Amino acid sequence: MLGKESKNFDALSLFSPPPILRGYMYGAQEAYGARDSNRLLAIRLETNTSCNLHCRYCYAQSGEDSVKIADFNVLKRIISEAKELGIRSVVVIGGGEPTLYPNFRELIAYIDSLGIVPMLFSNTILMTEELADFLYEHNASVMGKLDSLKPEVQDYLAGREGAFKDIKTGLGNLQKAGFSKPAEPGKLRLGISFVSNKLNLEEIAEIWHFCRQNNIFPNMEILTPTGRANDELEDKLLTADEIKEYKLRLLEIDRNYYGYNWLPYTPITASGCLQHLYSLYINIEGNVRPCAPTKLDEHPALRVNGEYPYNVNRMSLKEIYDSKLFTYVRNIDKVLEGRCGNCEYIKECIGCRGYAYSVGINNGAGPLEALRMECQQCFKE
C-alpha cells in the first residue's frame, strides 16, 4: 500500500492541504510573497529559561535551575519594531515554559492590543480553566505538548513523574475554553507538539488520529541532535527509513480517513516549514537566529570582537533583518545543495534548515555551509 501511494507524490494537482495552526506556520505563497516584498510574517520570542519540566530533547536545555528572564519593556520594543516590518503573529516560544514568565499575561494582552495574533507554546502544566479562558479571550493560538499517550513514556521524556497527568488536564482545560473550535476555515487555534523518536514511534498514528478528530493541529517534530538530546537521547534518533515509513503511514491515514493530501517530504509533517523565509527567532539573550536550532549566535566564526553582533540590544530589528547574513538566510532556497537544490518541490519545501545546520555543525562545517546543506531527513529519491 505504501509503495503504491508513494508513486502519487509527484502529482501536485492532488494536494489538498489540511488546516494549519493560526499564527504558527505560513504557507508557501505567503512565505515567498513576504520574502520577496521584504516583510516579516512572524517572530519567535524567548521570554524565560525557567521550566517546570526537564524534557530530555530540549534544544534550550531549560529547567527549574535556569532563571534567565527577559525584560518586559525590551520585549515590547522588539514586538513594536517587528510590527513595523509587517508581522501578523508573535510566537511566544518561551525558551522554557512561557506561562512562568512574570509578565506573561501582560505580554499576551500587549500583542493582542496591536492586532497581532499571540501564538503560545506551552507544556500546559499550569493551564488552569481561568488561564485558558484568558488566552481564548485574547485571540491566542496555543501549541500544547503530548509526546506519548503512555504515562511512563511521557513522564520519562518530560523528565518529571506525573507530567502526563498534568499535561492532559491542561489540554482538557484548553478544549473546554473553546480552543478546539477553528478560528476560521482552514485555521485552527489548538495544536499538540510531539517529538518523534524511538520511544514513541509506535504511538504516532494514534496521536495523529486524536488530533484530527478533535480539531487539533498535529505538530510532528523529529528529534534533532542539539541541546540536551545530544546527551540524553542520542540513541533514540530515528533513522531515515523510520522517518520515511511513519510519514507515509500518516499520509495514508490523512488520505483515507480525513480527505487530506500533502507533500510527505517536508520537515514538519503535513505542514512544511518555510520560516527561514519570513521569521526571526530572538533568544533570551536578545540574539537573533533564523529558528531555534539554527544557533548562529553560538558559532565563533560569526562573532565580531568576541560578540555576536545580531542582537536586539546592539542593532534594531530592521538592521538585523536587512543585514547581509539574514538576507542570505531569507534567500537560502537559491543556494541549497544536493537534492534540496535540485528539488522540483523547492517552492513547497526547503528541508529542515535547523536539522541540516545542527548536523553540519556537528560534522565540522562552517555556519553558512551548514545552512545550505541538503536535508538528511528527506527520503525523496
UniProtKB/TrEMBL annotation:
Name the domain of life: Archaea
Coiled-coil regions listed: none
Q: Which residues form the Radical SAM core domain?
A: 35-261
Q: Which cofactor does it need?
A: [4Fe-4S] cluster
Query: What GO terms are given for molecular function?
Result: 4 iron, 4 sulfur cluster binding; catalytic activity; metal ion binding
Q: Which Pfam family, an example, fits this chain?
A: SPASM
User: What keywords are annotated for this sequence in UniProt?
Assistant: 4Fe-4S, Iron, Iron-sulfur, Metal-binding, S-adenosyl-L-methionine
The yes or no answer to whether the keyword Glycoprotein is present is: no
- Extract the InterPro entries matched here: 4Fe4S-binding_SPASM_dom, Aldolase_TIM, PqqE-like, Radical_SAM_PqqE_MftC-like, rSAM, rSAM_sf
Full protein name: Radical SAM protein
What lineage, starting at the top, does this entry show? Archaea, Methanobacteriati, Methanobacteriota, Stenosarchaea group, Methanomicrobia
